[in-house]
Amino acid sequence: MSGVLALVSQGRFLEGFRAPLLTGILALAVSWILTPVVRNLAIQKGAIDDPKIDDRRVHKEPTPRWGGLAIYAGILFALLVVLPFANPQAPFPLYLIGMLLVAGALVVIGALDDLYQYKAKVQAILLLAAGVAIQFFAGPILGRDWRVQINTVGIPFTNGRYFDLHPWYFAFPLTAIYIFVVTKTMDTIDGVDGLAAGIASIAATTLTIIATYGHQPRVALIAAATAGAAIGFLKHNYNPAKIFMGTGGAYVLGFMLACLSIVGAFKTAAAVAVVVPVLVFGIPIFDAFFVITRRLLSGDPITKADKRHLHHTLLKRGLTQRQTVLVLYAAAAVLCAVALLVFRSHG
């Protein structure tokens, strides 16, 4: 206790975390307040998830979607308010403008998908296009370095060795595929009340801590805004959910997290640059691997929707929705804690 008081008296309490904390609180408040407004809008426009559509749904009553609109608004508002004060000389670098523009487009695309149910191939093309588009912001074509691009991949637990992927024919597709995988897996785990929002908030909080300790204050603010917006929405999405985030919400959270991990975690110590994101996104990635493997073994198309996800498996074992979510929260938290330990030991 005396140590905490000493830090407070020296002005060092929560040093480095105060601006991210403020950003997260603002995003949380906006998302929390706007979600009921968005819910009413979704009901008016007919963006409703009907559990009778197929047997994969675990909810019992028709539930409005479009929660992603409130999540995106929370992120955008918090960054518009805080960044001009936190980084007055260059509050909005080109890569961040690109992230917000592409994320906004994905929210709109997701909202339309909630209404018209695009085919899996169409969704894949759109997400891959988003992964390509973001790479042009702050790239050499504009006389600057690539920011949202994986152009080197560190070899884990070596003495700084890495693979050089700077040729565009390596970096462009690898980055686009990575963004697609993270974004899509965030969408596929959104099958139980509160699961995707909770996993996203845990991952974003972890990226906030990594960016703060890695001396990337702007990345920390963006990650904190993402975490806050997800938590604010979670208030309305936790079981029993009053609203779902919809495709747009999963897309914006997955896309922001994927880009943040590239700008942040992949730019850290080469020895753990691959290990940290894999741990941070461990639950969604394992769920996707788990599902795809089971579909291949049964001879089904990998894009076929079914009840083989982790949350479906836990529900079949007799867990309630809340118990299922808490188990997966705990697993995600453990993996993220390991990621932080690995980062701190090699950062």
Number of discrete helical segments = 13
The dominant shape is globular
Count of discrete domains: 1
Ends: how far apart? 28 Å
The helix content, as a percent range, equals 55-70%
Q: How much of the polypeptide forms β-strand, as a percent range?
A: under 5%
Q: What are the low-pLDDT stretches, counting only 5+ consecutive residues below 50?
A: 1-11
The radius of gyration computed from the alpha-carbon positions, rounded to a whole number of angstroms, is 20 Å
Describe the structure.
It is built from 13 helices and four strands. It has 347 residues and is an all-alpha fold. The protein has one domain. The protein has a two-stranded antiparallel sheet. A two-stranded antiparallel ribbon has the order 3-4. Strand 3 (152-154) and strand 4 form a beta hairpin. Helix 3 (67-86) packs antiparallel against helix 4 (94-116) and helix 8 (217-237) runs antiparallel to helix 9 (246-263). The longest helix has 28 residues, at 18-45. The radius of gyration is 20 Å and the shape is globular. The protein starts with a helix and ends with a helix. 48% of the residues are buried.
